[in-house]
Every structure is written in structure tokens, then in C-alpha cells.
Specification:
The chain has 14 helices and nine strands. By secondary structure, the protein is an alpha+beta fold. It folds into three domains: 199 residues, Up-down Bundle (Rhopdopsin 7-helix transmembrane proteins), CATH 1.20.1070; 73 residues; 148 residues, Heat Shock Protein 90 (2-Layer Sandwich). Strands 4-6-7-9-8 form a five-stranded mixed β-sheet. α2 runs antiparallel to α3 and α11 packs parallel to α12. The longest helix has 75 residues. The radius of gyration is 41 Å and the shape is elongated.
Length: 532
């Protein structure tokens, strides 16, 4: 006989633990949702009903305790039936406003029926058989009121929910989810009618009544699945739930193996502690998964924003570049004398216009390069180049400009003719960027270019006596849109030149870096690429 009760206890325990976990999973999924709140109360009332349903069916020689277990079981049956009705009433709304009739008449009436079940109006007395189990129950009018009211709530809730489902204009998936809820209710009602009413009353077989909580479990599983299906199903979260469920089942089984009353109490307290910790663990995992999901959505939004930004930059760059090139062409004709009889003052204006256009075209080209890098579309055309002549040609193009600014401009070449593998246009762009920056940030003094060999690499350095930079700035100088904050207003720029230069040099299998002893002490930018 004890083995039978142990097996029953395991079935009931699994059902109760499962309902508790599912109730808290649904609730923590969205604690402000009225449907989720109702489902939590539904599972809690089902658990309490299942516990007292199990307790009053256990053998005991104390008629008083069994009678009260029977009455309390009926009280929670009222609450459980009400929360099933209320769940069908509010599902799937997040916020459901109850009418005054519902709040101030119907709910108090439910509580009144519940209170009646605790009085002799339902169960006056019980008789026990030789096995100390209930043999006969003396009932009164209250049991009829209870039965009619519970059946009314269940069937009215079922019919109302069914009509709402077939009449509302909702998607097929939503209709399917609601019909699954109805299926859960039908299973719950059918199992309870068969094993808690038909078997005991018509076949004098009440041995299955003790498993009442197990009859409820399918309905709880289906309902929780429907609530969570379209909102939150994550493999990591499901695995965590299964792990917790197994741990709780093992903890419950340990209670059965208790050797004494004190041992039972200790193991029961440990089980409750594990259950509480499990709830916290579920919430932590849920929060982590939700944050990961939010981060994924934010990344998707960021990717879309970056794509729109790149498309805008491309569009704006192309739209600006063409008219600027035309203006530059006309201005150049004025400057070089192709257009005759241009006054000197107009030529001066034309020179200034050309310089501004050149600066703007450089700016546009930097934005276009930035977009190419961002989309991994920058192309390189590598070829064998003699590096000393290549650098000398770039150097010669800046001699006049440096002279106009009264700067000492020199090239120190310690190399014999050496071949390297470079993209001539892109590599020249980097060297020009370094010289342009040196000219920008050096008011007086010198700019020196050094060309030498370092191991099996070529080392090219551009050194100046300009404004220098702090150690902090050196670390982040090659990032996107990074500029020295102290000179942002005085000297224009995008903060993309060095970022693009780093990308180009890295694609040449080289490296680029900056050196400075501090602000006001000049700077040195070095490039290292392999010799062919």
C-alpha cells in the first residue's frame, strides 16, 4: 500500500512542481500582462487544490483533519474554477478592464461560494473505513450550490471563449492557439468528470481521485505553451527549465525516502529553498536571454542605420563631386591663362576658389573611401614599384607649397633602389595624407621625410616640428572621426584620413603608427611595408 501512495505522490508531485514552474515562467515573461497574472493565480490555485485533494485522500484516523482537508480542497476548487473562467475571460489581452458588475457582484459571489464550502453546509461529517480512508460523506445543500456554480463557470467560460474565437477577425495562428486552449479545458473537464465523478459515483472506484492534480497538468502545459509560443521560446531558457524541473523532482523524491519526521521536515524545507532559488534562476536566465534578444534587435537597427548612412554618403558624395569638378575646371582655365584678359584680382579669387574646391573634393573622397571600407569594397591594384623614386616624386610636388609657408622641407633617403608591391594610387594617398597633416599642424620649423631599411621592411617616416600630441590621443588617433579636440575649430578635417590610411597600409601587409614627445613637441608618423 505504501508503494502505491509513493507512486501517487510522485505523479502528483511532478504535476504540482511542473505547474508551479510554468506559472512563474509565464508570469515573469510579462509581469504587467493581465493574462499572465491570471495564469499565475490559476496555477497557484490548482497547486493548492491538488495538495489538499491529495491530503484528504491519505489514510488517517483523525476524522477532524480529513474533514477540513476535504472542505479546504473544495474551497480551492472554487478558486481554481474561477481562475479558469477568468483566464478564458481575459485571454489574450494585456490589459483588461473589468466591469463594475464583475468586480463588485460576481467576484464577491465567488468568494461567498468559497466560504460556504468551508462550512457544514457542504460537508457535515465523514465516516472512515478499515483503512482509515473516507468511506462516506454527509453532505448538505452547499454541495449542490458548489457543483452548479463550478459547472456554470467552466461551461459558460468555455462557450464564451469558443464564440469569441470563431467570431473575432484574427489570424489563423491566433485561432489555432485559442482552440488549443479550448482543447486544454476539454481535457481538464473530461478527466475530472471521469475520475472524480463518474468512477466514484457509478463504479465505486475512487482510487484515482488522489491524482486530481495530474488531471490538471495537461491544461496548464497547453495554456502556458500558447501564451509563450509567439512571445518567448528560447533553447537556453527551455533547457534551464528542464534542468530545474528534474532537480525539483529529485528533491521531491528525497522527501519520500525520509526516515523520520524531523528528516521529512528538513528535506521539505530544502525542497522549498530549492524551489525558491529555481524561480530566481529562471528570472535571471530570462533576463539574460531578453537582453540578448534586445541587443540583437539593436544591432539589426544599427546595421540598418549604417546602411542608410552609407547610402546617403554615397549619394551626397556623387551629387557633390560632379558640379565641383566642373567649377574647378572653369576656375583652372582662369588661373592658367586659357581664358584671356582675366584681371589679377579675379585670378586671386579663382585661386582661393580652386583651393576650397580641392579641399572639398578631398573631403568627399574621404567619405567615399570610408563607405568603401565600411562595405569592404575598397579595391587594390598591386604592382611592383621602385619606392625611392616613387616617394621622391611625391616629395617634389610639395616643395613649392612648403616654401610658401616658410618651412624647411627635406627628404633623407638611406636606401638603394628597392622594389615593393603596392597600389600606387592608394599608397600615394597615404603619403600625401601624412604630408598634408604635417603642413596643417606645423606653423614654423621643418617637415622631414625619412626613407630607410628596417630588417626586411621599408620604413618611411614623416617628421614635423608642429603642435605634437598627447599620449592619450596617440592611442586612438587611427580610429573613425578622431581629431585633436584642441584644434578642431581652427583646422578643418573629417578625422577619417588616418583611419583610411591605416586600412590601406594593413592591406599592404604593413603597419602605421604615430609618435610624439607631447603637445608642442612635434610628431612623427611612420609606415613600414615589406620589401618585395
Amino acid at each position: 500500500m505504501n508503494l502505491i501512495y509513493d507512486i501517487n505522490f510522485i505523479f502528483v508531485g511532478i504535476s504540482l512542481i511542473g505547474m508551479g514552474i510554468l506559472g512563474f515562467i509565464v508570469y515573469t515573461n510579462d509581469s504587467k500582462n493581465d493574462t499572465n497574472k491570471t495564469f499565475l493565480f490559476l496555477t497557484l490555485s490548482a497547486i493548492l487544490w491538488g495538495i489538499f485533494n491529495y491530503l484528504y485522500n491519505l489514510p488517517s484516523n483523525n476524522k477532524f483533519i480529513i474533514l477540513w482537508f476535504l472542505r479546504i480542497h473544495l474551497f480551492f476548487a472554487v478558486l481554481y474554477s474561477f481562475f479558469i473562467f477568468h483566464f478564458l475571460y481575459v485571454f489574450p489581452e494585456k490589459k483588461h478592464y473589468l466591469s463594475k458588475y464583475y468586480k463588485f457582484i460576481f467576484i464577491p459571489f465567488v468568494l461567498l461560494i468559497g466560504l460556504i464550502t468551508l462550512t457544514p453546509l457542504t460537508f457535515r461529517n465523514i465516516e472512515l473505513n478499515n483503512f482509515n480512508r473516507i468511506e462516506k460523506v454527509d453532505t448538505d445543500i452547499g454541495i449542490i450550490i458548489f457543483g452548479c456554480f463550478v459547472l456554470f463557470m467552466l461551461f459558460y467560460g468555455f462557450i464564451r471563449f469558443f464564440l469569441k474565437t470563431i467570431t473575432e477577425k484574427i489570424s489563423f495562428n491566433e485561432k489555432l492557439s485559442r482552440f488549443l486552449i479550448l482543447l486544454g479545458v476539454m481535457i481538464f473537464i473530461s478527466l475530472n468528470l471521469i475520475f472524480n465523478f463518474i468512477f466514484p459515483n457509478f463504479f465505486q472506484n475512487s482510487k484515482y481521485v488522489i491524482l486530481g492534480a495530474s488531471f490538471t497538468f495537461p491544461f496548464i502545459i497547453i495554456s502556458s505553451y500558447v501564451i509563450l509560443k509567439y512571445k518567448f521560446l528560447n533553447v537556453k531558457f527551455i533547457i534551464t527549465d528542464l534542468f530545474i524541473f528534474i532537480i525539483l523532482i529529485i528533491s521531491a523524491i528525497q522527501i519520500l525516502r525520509s526516515q523520520s519526521f524531523l528528516d521529512t521536515i528538513i528535506r521539505l524545507v530544502l525542497f522549498i529553498g530549492v524551489f525558491i532559488l529555481s524561480i530566481f534562476l529562471i528570472r535571471v536566465v530570462r533576463k539574460e536571454v531578453e537582453q540578448a534578444e534586445q541587443l540583437r534587435k539593436l544591432n539589426e537597427e544599427l546595421d540598418r542605420a549604417n546602411k542608410l548612412k552609407s547610402e546617403f554618403l554615397s549619394f551626397a558624395s556623387h551629387q557633390l563631386k560632379s558640379p565641383m569638378a566642373v567649377i574647378k575646371g572653369y576656375v583652372s582655365l582662369m588661373i592658367d591663362g586659357t581664358i584671356p584678359n582675366v584681371p589679377d584680382q579675379v585670378k586671386d579669387f579663382a585661386i582661393k576658389i580652386k583651393k576650397s574646391i580641392d579641399d572639398l573634393l578631398i573631403l568627399i573622397e574621404e567619405f567615399m573611401d570610408y563607405r568603401r571600407i565600411d562595405e569592404n569594397r575598397m579595391e587594390f591594384n598591386f604592382e611592383k614599384v621602385e619606392i625611392t623614386d616613387f616617394i621622391k616624386n611625391i616629395f617634389d610636388n610639395y616643395i613649392v607649397l612648403a616654401k610658401e609657408r616658410n618651412l624647411e622641407f627635406s627628404l633623407e633617403n638611406n636606401l638603394e633602389p628597392t622594389m615593393v608591391n603596392i597600389d600606387k594610387i592608394r599608397f600615394a594617398q597615404v603619403i600625401q595624407n601624412l604630408i598634408d597633416n604635417a603642413l596643417k599642424y606645423t606653423k614654423q620649423g621643418f617637415i622631414k621625410i625619412f626613407l630607410t631599411k628596417k630588417d626586411s621592411n621599408i620604413l618611411i617616416c614623416v617628421r614635423d616640428s608642429g603642435i605634437g600630441m598627447s599620449k592619450d590621443l596617440q592611442v586612438k588617433l587611427f580610429g573613425q572621426f578622431i581629431r585633436d579636440p584642441s584644434i578642431k575649430k581652427e583646422i578643418q578635417g573629417t578625422g577619417l584620413g588616418l583611419y583610411i590610411a591605416k586600412y590601406i597600409i594593413e592591406n599592404h601587409k604593413g603597419k602605421i603608427w604615430a609618435e610624439s614627445d607631447g603637445e608642442g613637441k612635434g610628431s612623427q608618423f611612420c609606415i613600414e611595408i615589406p620589401i618585395l
